[in-house]
Amino acid sequence: MNTRASRALWIACAVTVAAGGTVSALNTQALPTGASKPTLDVIKKLAGTWVELGEDGQPTDKVANVWRVTSGGFTVVETVMPGTKDEMLTVYHMDGDDLVLTHYCMLQNQVRMKARFEKDKLIFEYDGGTFVTSHDEAHMHRAEFTFVDEDHIKTRWEMFEKGENTYTASGDLVRRETASDTGSDVKPDIHEEK
Predict the structure, then answer these.
(1) What are the mean pLDDT values of the chain's consecutive 10-residue runs (194 residues total)?
(2) Which of 2, 48, 129, 149 is 20 to 30 A from 41 in CA distance terms?
């Protein structure tokens, strides 16, 4: 099976293998050959506007995250808590064979994390950054995504300080709008002048 078909099959499996609302059957051993490492395609599938689920399990009106594919499809920009005083950005892209992110944090640092699969989760772990000179300084250290189905994810972000997890932010999110609903996948009509 070629790489493109293998990736497409893996993405289809990641989205549809969810039986009973979980993806517990998804693990690195179940991934097709050639797709054992996360790629940007996994994050591209999140394009759209996501809202929090309420305690009643129903979508709220609170927009938690907006993912947008940009830079010719080579980058995904996530806006966290858009329009609030706590708004932050996370930028996802490939670095060689590695899926990485840079999180532009309200802690006034920019951490870089590298992705891997762990059972049914996509895990990002700290891999350096700016304005973080040691593990003693407060910084986001780990991010975890659980794909319940194509329109439902659970997120967990861990902040470390003095080498320990001191704060965890969790989200239970559902997609309110896809990228095509918001128009973010519309390509501009660019004409070269002669």
Answers:
(1) 36 31 33 62 95 94 96 97 96 96 95 92 95 90 94 96 94 86 41 37
(2) 129
At residue 51's C-alpha, the angle toward residues 68 and 90, to 5°, is 40
Residues 6+ apart with CB under 8 A from 82: 63, 65, 66
Note the residue count of the chain.
Answer: 194
In CATH terms, 3-179 corresponds, of 3.10.20, 2.10.70, 1.10.150, 2.40.128, to 2.40.128
CB-neighbour burial class of residue 162 (10 A; exposed 0-12, middle 13-18, buried 19+): exposed
Report the distance separating Cα 16 and Cα 32, nearest Å. Answer: 15
Cα–Cα distance measured from residue 142 to residue 64, given in angstroms and rounded to the nearest whole number: 18
Q: Which residues pair with 60 in a beta bridge?
A: none
Q: Are 135 and 158 in contact (CB under 8 A)?
A: no
Question: Which positions ≥6 away from 102 have C-beta within 8 Å?
Answer: 90, 91, 110, 111, 112, 129
Q: How far apart are CA 32 and CA 117, in angstroms?
A: 13
